[in-house]
Amino acid sequence: MSSDTFQASKKISDEIKADLAVNPGKYIMLTGDRPTGRLHLGHYFGTIKERVKLQELGVTTRIIIADYQVITDRDTTANIADNVHNMVIDYMACGIDPEKTIIFTHSAIPALNQLMLPFLSLCTEAELMRNPTVKSEQEASGHALTGLLLTYPVHQACDILFCKGNVVPVGKDQLPHIEQTRQIARRFNDRYAPVFPEPHGLLTEAVEIPGLDGRKMSKSYGNAISLSATAEETAKLIKKSKTDSERFITFDKENRPGVSALLTTAALCTGRSEVEIAEEIGNDGSGALKKYVTEAVNEYLAPIRARREELMQDMDYVRDVLAEGNRKANEIANATLNEVREAMGMVY
Ligand code: TRP
User: Fold this and answer.
1) Pocket test for ligand 1, best of 40, 54, 62, 69 (most atoms within 8 A of CB)
2) What range defines the domain where residue 202 resides?
3) Are residues 7 and 136 in the same domain?
4) Residue from 165, 64, 122 nearest 343 by CA
5) Would strands 167-170 and 101-105 be described as parallel, antiparallel, or unpaired?
6) What is the CATH number of the domain that holds 96?
7) Which terminus, N or C, of the chain has the lesser number of Cβ atoms within 10 Å?
8) Ligand 1: residue whose CA is nearest its atom 1
9) Same domain (yes/no): 338, 265
10) How confident is the model over 80-116, as pLDDT tens digits?
């Protein structure tokens, strides 16, 4: 994506953010996650916190657990049910309220998936082939490009448009998909009848929280602090994180990625600045820093983990939340599919 396009998206995103607080009723948020494992601090500060904020502002909020997306770049669905249930638990523990936000799974909404056929007719092979995120995910997977991965921006457009989502909180890497979604909506509306909004990405303000080694936080790098980890597991993970041989603690992302990642983690959890924390620890070295970070993270996550524990004791409730979310999402998807049939003259 060119920096001009990014700047344009950023500008609109900022304008919408200002308007969200004034006119929350104008907005429908749709966003989601792939159930490939437990949610971690990177998810929490990157997007979950923002979703809770929008929910509390009174924006209409929907969250998709994108189970079919798991097989875009891997060839197993092992543990998927467990991952999905834990994702529902993580959301609720973080403050997503199922009375206000619909939580549902991609595979349970047939009418959503049926949008795929008309939408595919609105995209060219060249458009799909040049999507930078599809390309990089394919390279990272080490697999041949599957049809599902190639068409991933299109099924994500179905996710967003079935519920007429007009704001999509996403990271920068997802912006090309939003652009494709806008194009699909525009082409459908031009060709048939105006049914869909043209959604905008809502770029999250949060600093991207680095993993414990300074790389992006990701379960596959082993550098992620899961919301579901125990206080002891968290301490262990932080203890073995890589710092450097310099004793005096300073915040220097470029030259000291390990130390700086720890400082950012502590800063997010305490609301203090990295530099302030670094100055306080100074010559006490990385042992003291790790101790500080461990306490900050564990204290921050304590209420979330306590709610998690409670929910784990009541799996029937967790399953009910998902069943109810799926029921509501199906209602919305069926209504939209009927509009699509009408727009296309396919009512017999
Ligand atoms: N692709 C997103 C991710 O990997 C998850 C997702 C699925 C999503 N459907 C979506 C995000 C619709 C925004 C809108 O994180």
Assistant:
1) 69
2) 3-206+315-343
3) yes
4) 122
5) unpaired
6) 3.40.50.620
7) C
8) 33
9) no
10) 999 999 999 999 999 999 999 999 999 999 999 999 9
